Amino acid sequence: MGSVAFTQWVQHIGQPISDRLEECGFIRKIPTYGLKNQATFRLIDNYTLFYLKFVKHNTANDEQFWSHNYLSSLRSAWVGLTFERLCFQHIRQIKMALGISGVVTNVFAWRVGLGADGRKGAQIDMLIDRADNMVNICEMKFSHNEYTVTKDDADSLHHKAECFIAETGCKKSVSLTMVTVSGIAHAGYWSEIHNNITSEDLFKA
Questions:
Q1: Number of C-beta neighbours around residue 14 at 10 A
Q2: How many CA within 13 A on the CB side of residue 156?
Q3: Which tops the pLDDT comparison, 143 or 43?
Q4: Fewest beta carbons less than 10 Å away: which of 116, 159, 170, 183?
C-alpha cells in the first residue's frame, strides 16, 4: 500500500481510531506543508510492516528465506524503506545533527503533481521548516558503504527544491540534506549536498 492509499485508508477509518493508532506508535501523521487540513499518514510499526510484506502471503515455508533472498530486489527495496522509516523515528537526532535543537521547527511532507506545462511532479517525504528562515529538504539513501551522489540524485533534489519554491512561494533558504548510513563519498556530485547525516548521528542520545 502506497503512502497516498494508506492516507486515504486512515482517513476512512475516522479520527478517534487513527488518533489511538498514532498514540500507540503504529502510525505517524505528517502534516502537508502549506495545507492545514491535509496530512500524510505513514505506517511505522516495524513488525506490522514486516508481517504484511513477508509473512502474511508467504506460503513457501523456506527456512533459509533471508539467505536465499539476500541479493534480491525485494530485500533491497525493503532495506531502503526500512532505513527511511528509521529516519522518521529519529527526527530529534536529525535536528541535533543539523545543530538546530534550539530552533523552533516543524516537520512536513509535500508533493505536487504533473504541471500544466508538462513539468514532472515532485515529492518531499521529510521537510524541516525552521524558524531561522531555513528549510531542510531531506533525502534518505541507504547503502552499505559511503553513498556516491549521482547526477540524477543532484538533479532530483534541485528539481524538488525548485518545485517547492515555485508552488509554495516559500522565501526561506533551502538546504539540500541527505541522511545516509556511512556518509557521502567525496566523488560525483557530493558538493551539491549542503548537509549529510549518518546512521551514527541517528543513535546519539
A1: 9
A2: 13
A3: 143
A4: 116
Q: What is the pTM of this model?
A: 0.79
Query: CA-based diameter of the chain, in Å?
Result: 55
Among 135, 84, 138, CA closest to 105: 135
CB neighbours of 84 closer than 8 A, spacing ≥ 6?
Answer: 125, 140, 142
Question: Average per-residue pLDDT in the chain?
Answer: 85
> Residue 191 burial by CB count (10 A; 0-12/13-18/19+): exposed, middle or buried?
exposed
Structural contact between residues 153 and 191, judged by C-beta atoms closer than 8 angstroms: no
- Lowest average pLDDT, out of 115-129, 132-146, 155-169, goes to 115-129
| pLDDT for residue 201 is more than 90 | yes
pLDDT tens digits along 101-114: 999 999 999 999 88
**Own/partner long-range contacts of 64-70 (Cβ < 8 Å, ≥24 apart):** none
Burial class of residue 10 in the structure, from the number of CB atoms within 10 Å of its CB (0-12 exposed, 13-18 middle, 19+ buried): buried
Residue whose C-alpha cell is 551514527:
200
Q: Does the pLDDT of residue 92 top 90, yes or no? A: yes
Q: The C-alpha cell of 169 is what?
A: 512561494
Sheet with 173-180, edge to edge strand ranges = 35-43, 27-32, 105-112, 122-130, 134-141, 173-180, 195-197
